[in-house]
Write a structure and sequence with these properties.
alpha+beta, eleven-stranded mixed sheet, six-stranded mixed β-barrel, globular
Length: 924
């Protein structure tokens, strides 16, 4: 008997396994959309990992190629991740123009390195012998000559690059945005440390006024040998003739590489003619390590081998790309999170429909555990299939991303599809686990139901109590709202702490909404149904009663849409508040009549020469220069922890509304001013001096705090005078330190301005005066606000496109629920058809039910989005987001769009329901 029992159990287990596979085969259509939900989420995760892995491999290859023949890299940058000069190439994210000044360039053919780390990878004895790096952050002419004359050296190349803008003679810009246009020195033949540069047409640049351009840019813009171009950098402008076209490793996207003769680059485009980074080749018989040791012992600069720099740059690139990966994977996880509700709903409905089948199996001796295992096995198959297809779909997604980047000229080199173990394993594991966890509750329900109960007719899930679930949801909502209020209104905590609290509160609110939603849906959905179904009479009433029949199912289906729209609503509110805050700054904080800036789509600064051009324009009164420089006070950066600070050349009161609290704020002397909040938090007192540093180095001097002002978004937390910056970071004669972000232009008395309207003629004259500088935009404050709003909208559009994944998955959930509901109500629909209900009425009934579910989900989602948006905007008020704005039009469109979502989602299930054969359905 024991042996027989054991044999039966094994046979039963095998039979249950076969039953699970046969059930999947028999219910392919039911599970198809569930598989698709898994596919969408895992495709995003797999594609994100493949995309960043491909980019990492490509950049690594470019860096290796760049540094392959470089024996030593000499850098005057004393900071750990130096590479910035008073031209400033690394700027605070979101606040300053980027990649300008004479900067080390991106790795690639004919290019330098943009950031030069310290010799952290150098041997200890070499690091100990290396003198302290100079504070000038430049390699002097004398030291350059001495390096060239060393017996261990064969070649020396300047590795710096300068961001530029190129245009045709008629002023038409060769637009490379968002990729950069870089100007660099040209080396060829025996002079080149990196090896020969291949000129494919024309000749190399040798004289002043010669330039060579990379082949992809020449083809994209129709540039030919002999063409004349205007080239503008932050410090110079020139007219050049294209003498040659060369091959470059960076031949994708919109990148433009302009190469000029090395002497021309040094004389015209390097500040004081002094570079910051050099590539050095070793003489025959000298190893790279020996060369580095000789240079480090002789000169007070950072010295590394090319291999060390290559490794550190690769590590920096990987670190930067990891953010892109995390960002994209996060949206894939959001899609999967929304998909969990679809999966749970699908399996709940399938289990409910198969209760009689399960009862028969239980009566035949199948155990609870075996039934539970059979449903879990179905979930495993769905998860594995969906995840595997998701990995394949991720490969297609990578191709789509590269195609989009190429079409928009994003300038990212195509890295191909890199199928790493992580890109396969992570989406497979996550997809399968999410599917199993989502199906676990329905699986347990299947196993826990007793045979006699399962043989009864009716939907057990619809009649079970919601009291416990509702109480738990109410508690979670109450705690979530309390935590959100504490985070939003707790001024005594740091912004980071408050943001974490609001984030935790968001999780609690979403969880509480999910738990309490069925109880709310029991009352809210019929109310929505009365409004939506009113014009449709009896059909509308049937749809309303159907929606209220199973509040759990209705709420779960709607919640997928709720979650997606809550995120969209919160992001929309943040975006609207950002635009309102920018508009408020320009309306209340900017006094100038015009603001002259570089192009908003590239972050290019205002060229130095444009300052004189504006000042010399008739009708112009005061011109304030708002710039950024690599200096900071007591190591405290003014922008998100970065070692940068603003400076102002001129009297800030001429162009900006400044409310002085103590001392003077006219910046006429060497020193700095700070807003009251910043001064108080750091203990700064007017009249006392504090150390001002150059970047992250100890170099600098003490400068006095001249005065304090009320917090001002136009000036930032603190701002130095021009004299104060130049005391720490001297600039060349006639040049402004760092880079110029904006010119605040005020009309002269009698030309308008202030309370008078400013004549458009003055704006046109300013544009004409700066026309030769190509990049300068002369805008009114209102126009400048509009430009900023466009940039915010571009950022929001990217987020909305990524969040669209969650909305698509939610729509699939509604389709899936309705399709399964049609199968479940087959007899009922057949009876309605038998008593005379027309096909069109059946279709309308299904469609109205979908609309009710979608509108309910949208309303709840909008309310959550508004609440979370308010909390996050309130937390960020101290970071410049001081205006709270609600995107009412967007919210109304979301609610109206939800009805359309319901109509679209119901299309296929409604048609299927309308085609139900009455007699066959009744006989089932």
């Amino acid at each position: 008997m024991p042996k027989r029992t054991k044999g039966v159990r094994v046979s039963g287990a095998a039979a249950v396994g076969r039953l699970s596979l046969r059930t999947i085969a028999a219910h392919k259509v039911r599970l198809l959309l569930t598989v698709l939900a898994v596919v969408l989420g895992t495709a995003f995760i797999a594609g994100s990992l493949m995309f960043t892995a491909g980019l990492s491999r490509t950049f690594d290859s470019l860096v290796d190629g760049e540094m392959k023949n470089v024996d030593a890299v000499v850098s005057a940058s004393p900071s750990p991740h130096g590479g910035t000069s008073d031209g400033g190439d690394a700027q605070p994210t979101g606040t300053q123009p980027r990649n300008s000044g004479d900067t080390p360039g991106a790795a690639g053919e004919g290019q330098g390195i943009r950031e030069m780390p310290e010799a952290t990878g150098a041997p200890a004895d070499r690091a100990a012998a290396q003198p302290q790096a100079v504070s000038s952050r430049r390699i002097s002419e004398d030291d350059l000559r001495r390096i060239q004359e060393m017996p261990q050296v064969s070649q020396v190349n300047i590795a710096n690059q300068v961001q530029a803008v190129a245009a045709r003679e008629n002023g038409e810009t060769l637009n490379s945005a968002p990729a950069p246009t870089m100007l660099q020195p040209f080396y060829d033949g025996e002079e080149s440390v990196k090896g020969e540069t291949h000129i494919v047409d024309g000749a190399a640049p040798t004289d002043t006024g010669d330039v060579a351009i990379n082949a992809s840019a020449a083809e994209a813009h129709g540039v030919k040998v002999g063409d004349r171009l205007k080239v503008v950098t932050s410090r110079a402008q020139d007219e050049v003739t294209v003498t040659g076209i060369y091959d470059s490793d960076i031949e994708t996207g919109g990148f433009i590489g302009l190469s000029v003769a090395a002497d021309t680059f040094k004389e015209k485009f390097l500040q004081s003619g002094e570079p910051r980074t050099l590539y050095v080749g070793a003489a025959q018989g000298t190893t790279a390590a020996e060369l580095v040791d000789s240079l480090a012992a002789e000169f007070p600069y950072s010295v590394q081998t090319g291999e060390e720099v290559s490794e550190e740059l690769s590590a920096e690139i990987s670190k930067a790309l990891s953010f892109v990966s995390y960002f994209l994977v996060a949206f894939g996880l959001v899609g999967l999170l929304v998909g969990t509700f679809i999966i749970a709903n699908t399996f709940s409905m399938i289990v409910a429909q198969r209760m009689r089948e399960f009862a028969l199996l239980r009566a035949l001796g199948v155990s609870r555990g075996q039934l539970t295992a059979s449903v879990v096995l179905e979930a495993v198959v769905v998860g594995v299939l969906g995840s595997a297809l998701g990995v394949l779909a991720g490969m297609g997604l990578v191709k789509v991303i590269y195609a989009v980047l190429e079409s928009t000229g994003a300038g990212l080199p195509a890295g191909g599809i890199v199928l790493t173990p992580l890109a396969v394993a992570l989406p497979m594991i996550v997809g399968v686990l999410v599917t199993i966890l989502s199906a676990w509750a329905p699986a347990r329900s299947a196993g826990a139901t007793r045979p006699v109960e399962a043989m009864r007719s009716g939907d057990a899930s619809s009649s079970s109590s919601l009291v416990g679930r509702t109480i738990a949801g109410g508690l979670a909502l109450t705690v979530g709202v309390a935590v959100a209020l504490a985070g939003a209104l707790g001024d005594g905590w740091s912004t980071k702490t408050r943001a974490i609290l609001v984030g935790a509160a968001a999780v609690l609110v979403i969880l509480g909404t999910f738990l309490a939603s069925p109880a709310v849906a029991r009352r809210a959905v019929p109310a929505i149904g009365r409004i939506v179904g009113l014009p449709f009479g009896t059909v509308g009433a049937l749809a309303r009663k159907n929606s209220a029949r199973n509040p759990r199912r209705t709420a779960t289906t709607a919640f997928a849409l709720t979650l997606g729209l809550a995120l969209v609503g919160a992001v929309g509110m943040l975006g609207a508040s950002m635009k309102a805050s920018v508009a408020e700054v320009t309306e209340t904080a900017v006094k100038a009549d015009f603001v002259a800036t570089g192009p908003s789509n590239s972050g290019f600064p205002v060229p130095n020469g444009a300052v004189d051009a504006v000042q010399e324009t008739p009708g112009v009164g005061a011109v304030g220069v708002l710039g950024s420089s690599l200096v900071n006070i007591e190591g405290i950066g003014a922008f998100a922890g970065q070692p940068f600070a603003n400076y102002y050349g001129g009297n800030p009161h001429d162009g900006i509304v400044v409310d002085t609290v103590e001392g003077t704020t006219d910046l006429a002397e060497e020193g700095f001013i700070a807003d009251t909040k910043t001064a108080a938090s750091h203990g700064w007192k007017v009249g006392e001096s504090y150390p001002v540093h150059l970047g992250k180095t100890p170099a600098g001097k003490k400068l006095p705090l001249l005065g304090t002002y009320e917090p001002n978004q136009a000036l930032g937390p603190y701002v130095l005078s021009r004299a104060g910056v130049e005391g720490v970071q001297p600039s060349a004669q006639g040049q402004w330190p760092g880079q110029i972000m904006a010119l605040m232009v005020t009309a002269a008395p009698g030309e308008g301005g202030g309370e008078q309207s400013v004549p458009t003629e003055l704006q046109e004259e300013l544009r004409e005066a700066t026309r030769d500088y190509i990049v300068v935009q002369v805008l009114t404050p209102a126009e400048a606000s509009g430009e900023a709003a466009v940039m915010v909208d571009q950022m929001l559009n990217i987020l909305y496109a990524l969040l669209a994944l969650a909305i698509i998955v939610a729509i699939l959930g509604i389709v899936n629920t309705l399709a399964l509901n049609v199968i479940e109500r087959r007899q009922e629909i057949g009876m309605l058809r038998a008593i005379g209900t027309m096909r069109g009425q059946i279709r309308r009934m299904i469609t109205l039910k979908a609309v009710q579910i979608a509108v309910y989900g949208a309303i709840v989602g909008v309310l959550i989005g508004l609440g979370l948006g308010w909390a996050f905007v309130t937390v960020l008020a101290g970071e410049g987001l001081e205006e709270l704005a609600v995107p009412w039009l967007q919210l109304v469109l979301m609610l109206l769009g939800s009805a359309l979502v319901g109509v679209v989602a119901a299309a296929w299930p409604a048609i299927k329901a309308g085609r139900t054969p009455p007699l066959e359905a009744i006989a089932d």
